[in-house]
Amino acid sequence: MGSVIWAVGLTKQYGDQSAVDGISLEVSQGESVAIMGPSGSGKTTLMHLLSGILSPDQGEVRLRDGSEDGVVVSALSAERRARLRRERVGFVFQEGLLLRELTARENVAVPLMLAGSGRRRAEEHADQWLAALGLAGMESRRPGELSGGQQQRVAIARAQAVTPGIVFADEPTGALDSATSTQVLDALLNSTTSRGAPLVMVTHDADVAARCSRIIRLEDGRVVHDSRVEETRVEESR
Ligand SMILES: Nc1ncnc2c1ncn2[C@@H]1O[C@H](COP(=O)(O)OP(=O)(O)OP(=O)(O)O)[C@@H](O)[C@H]1O
């Protein structure tokens, strides 16, 4: 399977604190990757480096963009990086971060309009995504009129609507009870991997991680376990 993102030698320091300390990894089409590890081990920093929110002190991140070698995210200007993030990368956070004054439909349509769609087309497309996530009939509600799980599904629809090449999620079910968490996780996994796009998710929850195809564990800014690497080793030793 082709790589969608590949990172080499990523390092990020805060003062003399090494948040990420020389991490290299590739993520392939259709993979769902859980990033786990103790508090302060560098999970969020790694996700922000992979997604171009942060620039590394050393190393580079490439994202597949149609060209053979991909685009080096960290070499882009801040403006081009922001555009790449808007159009090729989806984000889902612990709290949906929906715009409170807008309806569910408008929340999903906004990124499409920012990417150049007309309002009517964007809203039609938004309605299709909301329906795909089980929210038909709720298009005109504002976030305050939806449950936590429903709000998170609106956030997933918003992330998917621009059909990004990769989706990142930071504790996407962290604020939900366990039954709702399962539904939201199913929606997130299915809506991403069924398109062939990879999902990279930071989670503290072992049950959530167990639903992913790959688990990466960090300690002190380094990868101490990668289930994909372990599987490759086992296959090679056969
Ligand atoms: N903006 C910042 N300024 C200074 N130090 C930071 C900053 N962001 C992160 N750090 C430090 O870098 C290290 C890694 O932080 P990070 O948020 O990536 O960890 P994490 O594994 O996501 O933690 P948690 O599970 O608690 O969210 C920590 O020691 C943290 O204090």
Automatic annotation (TrEMBL):
A molecular function annotated in GO for this UniProt entry is: ATP binding
Q: Which InterPro entries match?
A: AAA+_ATPase, ABC_transporter-like_ATP-bd, ABC_transpr_LolD-like, MacB-like_ATP-bd, P-loop_NTPase
Family matches, as SUPFAM superfamilies:
P-loop containing nucleoside triphosphate hydrolases
Q: Which residues form the ABC transporter domain?
A: 5-237
Check the record and name the PROSITE patterns matching this protein. Answer: ABC_TRANSPORTER_2 (PS50893)
One GO cellular component this record assigns the protein to is: plasma membrane
Q: Which Gene3D superfamilies match?
A: P-loop containing nucleotide triphosphate hydrolases (3.40.50.300)
Looking up CDD domains in the UniProt record yields: ABC_MJ0796_LolCDE_FtsE
Residue ranges crossing the lipid bilayer per the database entry: none
Alphabetical UniProt keywords:
ATP-binding, Nucleotide-binding, Transport
Q: Source organism's superkingdom? A: Bacteria
Q: What is this protein called?
A: ABC transporter ATP-binding protein
Source organism per entry reads Nesterenkonia cremea
